[in-house]
Amino acid sequence: MKGKEIIVLLLAGLLGSLHSPVLAGGVNEPADYRMDEYRAPVPDTLKGARVVTTQEAETLWRNKEAVFIDVMPNTPKPAGLPAGTIWHDKVRKDIPGSIWLANVGYGALTPEQAAYFREALAANTSGKATPILFYCMTDCWMSWNAAKRAIEWGYESVIWYPLGVDGWEQAGLPLEERRPLVEP
Question: Is 150 helix (H, G, I), strand (E, B) or coil?
């Protein structure tokens, strides 16, 4: 290809993208939950939720204006380890004051996981109008799925922080060790 042909193709692609439903990050918001490959680029939006930057999340945190919920999965101790095997839980550092609701960000939840999630939301909010900020890690669909589910359950002030603990840490903000909220 010659220089002019390349420029024409680039311009055509640029003009086409201005009218395309593909978002700036290049990922469309799906109609349903993400069911696999949870560590992948996420959309820039979540219908019904407010999407925040690290600076906005920090303001919410400092002013205690939202319940912060980490939905990072927890790696349980493997079943059937030989006697005497030493097991160390992976240390999770997250945003101070957060509630870690492990394993509620999958695309499909078991009835037990859904009940745990619903009960934890009810127990940690003062109703469905309470602002709730969901996060996980950068490029992690778990927080997107959890926030989407909360919206579908009628929560009115859902906030999604797509950069999660990675964005928080990169900004030099404080982290603390966290254990997941024990499942009922």
Answer: helix
Output the pTM of the full model: 0.82
Which H or E run includes 170?
helix 164-170
The domain ranges of the chain are: 46-76+90-184
Are 182 and 103 in contact, with CB atoms under 8 Å apart? Answer: no
CA dihedral defined by 97, 99, 100, 103, rounded to 10 degrees?
-160
Tell me how far apart the alpha carbons of residues 180 and 98 are, in angstroms, rounded to a whole number. 10
What CATH class has 46-76+90-184?
alpha beta
Q: What is the DSSP string of 111-124?
A: HHHHHHHHHHHHHH
Report the relative pairing of strands 176-178 and 92-94 from DSSP bridges.
antiparallel
- Residue 88's alpha-carbon distances to 71, 76, 78, 137, 163, in angstroms, are 20, 10, 11, 22, 27
CB-based burial, 27-38: b 16+ in 10 Å, e otherwise: beeeeebbeeeb
* pLDDT tens profile 131-146: 999 999 999 999 999 9
